[in-house]
Amino acid sequence: MQQKLWFIINPKAGIGKISDLENQLGSHFSAKKYSVTYAYTAFSKHAASLAATALKDGAHIIVACGGDGTINEVASVLVGQSVLFGCIPLGSGNGLASHLNIPKNIAKAAEVLVKGKVKRIDVGKVNNSFFFSNAGFGFDTRVLEARAHATSSPFLNYAHAVVKAFFKKWNLEEVEIVTAEGTSFTVTPFLVMITNSNQLGYQISLHREASVTDGMLDLIIIDRKPKLAILWMTLLVLLRKENYCRGLRHVKVKSVEIMSSIKNNLCIQQDGELRYCNDGSLHIEIMPAALQVIC
């Protein structure tokens, strides 16, 4: 019996990778075993509607081909479903794919789809939407806001945005954080990060022991500090010495409530995509083993 295999492709992802993608992928999937459909996104959030169409078509495997945003859109549709999720990482950050050891090389990633095993991974949820690698607010959202207006290569975009956000003056909001385990904080943080995987993208991590199969989220808080101290912490993170960062708080949680002093349009990011919360209140929880991934 043929398996229905859908590839949902973001044609804007990956510099020079898309032009011959169907040929690169198709050679790995025998017509005897697979009925292959290629679908291309044409606008924002299109990947999610294409994934829903693939579900209605009876797809057995749905593969996101793109960056973290495309992966988030497709995987969000498959949470709690029996349909298998796969990914061909074509973005610049590739947080979830890096955590799952899915290669950036297209041919090798396709081989993972053929020969890989199915793993049930945890899914993070912020209010009514999902994340698979991380969510947060503070400095990371400022970087993403600055990056949205850049025009150079992806890595240079990111580096430029980090520098721009670092030196730009911005107000830090006070937040109250209460975990399901009974821990509470009232802080004015430089950064609040909730991680499911151990990757933020670009091989950067704030907690390398984080796991997508432990049934827990990792809450990381970096308090407001002088810029020189933040520069030092940034250097340690880039050198993969984040364990030496002083003032980095880490708590394992199943769920957490975050109430911000900003009641309107609190800017948060989920898997690198900016979103806005109208009332400044976030309920964040883990959904254990909610997504089936080929990896």
Q: So what's the overall shape? A: globular
Order of helices and strands: EHEHEHEHHEEEHHEEEEHEEEEE
**In total, how many beta strands?**
16
User: Strand fraction band?
Assistant: 25-35%
- The helix content, as a percent range, equals 25-40%
Rounded radius of gyration (Å): 19 Å
Largest pleated sheet: 6 strands, antiparallel
- CATH architecture assignment of the largest domain: Sandwich
CATH class wording of the largest domain:
Mainly Beta
Model regions low in confidence, pLDDT < 50 over at least 5 residues: none
Topology:
Blueprint: E1 3-9, H1 21-26, E2 34-40, H2 46-56, E3 61-66, H3 68-78, E4 84-89, H4 95-99, H5 106-115, E5 118-126, E6 129-131, E7 134-138, H6 139-147, H7 154-167, E8 175-179, E9 184-187, E10 189-195, E11 217-223, H8 227-238, E12 248-253, E13 255-260, E14 266-270, E15 273-277, E16 281-294
Parallel strand pairs: 1-2, 1-3, 3-4
Antiparallel strand pairs: 5-6, 5-16, 7-10, 7-14, 8-9, 8-13, 10-11, 11-12, 13-16, 14-15
Helix pairs in contact: 2-3, 6-7
Summarize the structure.
With 295 residues, the chain is an alpha+beta fold. It is 26% helix and 35% strand.
Any key phrases for this structure?
single chain; 16 strands; 2 domains; Rossmann fold; nucleotide-binding; Tumour Suppressor Smad4; alpha+beta; Lipid kinase, YegS/Rv2252/BmrU family; 295 residues; globular; 6-stranded antiparallel sheet; ATP binding
Description:
This protein is an alpha+beta fold. It has 2 domains: 3-116, Probable inorganic polyphosphate/atp-NAD kinase, domain 1 (Rossmann fold); 129-288, Tumour Suppressor Smad4. It has helices at 21-26, 46-56, 68-78, 95-99, 106-115, 139-147, 154-167, 227-238, and strands spanning 3-9, 34-40, 61-66, 84-89, 118-126, 129-131, 134-138, 175-179, 184-187, 189-195, 217-223, 248-253, 255-260, 266-270, 273-277, 281-294. α2 packs parallel to α3 and α6 (139-147) crosses α7. Residues 1-129 form the DAGKc domain. One of its GO terms (molecular function) is ATP binding.
